[in-house]
From TrEMBL:
The lineage of its organism: Archaea, Methanobacteriati, Methanobacteriota, Stenosarchaea group, Halobacteria. Signal peptide: none annotated. Residues 13-170 form the Metallo-beta-lactamase domain. Residues 173-192 have a biased composition (Polar residues). Keywords: Hydrolase, Metal-binding, Zinc. GO terms for molecular function: hydrolase activity; metal ion binding. Its cofactor is Zn(2+). It comes from Natronorubrum bangense JCM 10635. This is Beta-lactamase. SMART domains: Lactamase_B (SM00849). Residues 167-192 are annotated as: Disordered. It comes from the Archaea. InterPro entries: MBL_Glyoxalase_II, Metallo-B-lactamas, RibonucZ/Hydroxyglut_hydro.
């Protein structure tokens, strides 16, 4: 099961996904709100924290979560404070009941990862793409529009057109033909 613990939070934060099942994982920790209590209301322990990338709005609560649950954090770049273990490009990662492939998708930030499970039909897109053709900012440090476009196209090449759910770093998740939203993001990123 996938629950967005930041839903309805009135603060500058990313979405925070609690994925339960065989391996209970928190995807991103958000920022500027108490995420520990909503986790505790649902589970007794976490097996891992997995990061899509390390912008402050995604990792502001990282130390609090690590301390509360005595858990390690996994991300692309272990040189970033708080990232204990590296996830390599195309590495398989267990999230909940399913295996996901990690895709290194820079352009918004150099350490950005997306996670895709063909069996679950789920994409965790981080800040690469959003609903209705929106896409990650490239005006921040490490942002690069041509690289972002390459990353979006790479995800399009990997994901199945029958994708059932796309969980994004901000805004609502997409369950109505999410593949089309990724296609539109690819087109919009070229026009902006």
């Amino acid at each position: 099961m996938i629950a967005n613990l930041a839903q309805g939070v009135q603060a500058f934060t990313s979405n925070v996904y609690l994925v339960t099942g065989d391996r209970t994982v928190l995807i991103d920790t958000g920022a500027n709100f108490d995420v520990v209590e909503p986790i505790r209301e649902r589970v007794d322990e976490l097996d891992a924290v997995v990061l899509t990338h390390t912008h402050r709005d995604h990792v502001g609560n990282l130390e609090a979560v690590k301390a509360a649950f005595d858990v390690d954090a996994w991300g692309y770049d272990t040189s970033v404070d708080g990232v204990d273990h590296a996830i390599a490009d195309e590495e398989t990662v267990q999230l909940g009941d399913h295996e996901y492939i990690a895709l290194h998708t820079p352009g918004h930030k150099n350490d950005h990862l997306c996670f895709y499970s063909v069996d679950a039909g789920v994409l965790f897109a981080g800040d690469l793409v959003f609903q209705n053709g929106s896409f990650g900012r490239t005006d921040l440090e490490e942002g690069d529009r041509p690289t972002l476009i390459e990353s979006i196209d790479r995800v399009l090449d990997v994901i199945d057109e029958d994708l059932t759910e796309m969980h994004t770093g901000h805004g609502p998740s997409v369950s109505n033909q999410p593949y089309g939203h990724v296609e539109l993001s690819s087109q919009m990123a070229r026009q902006a």
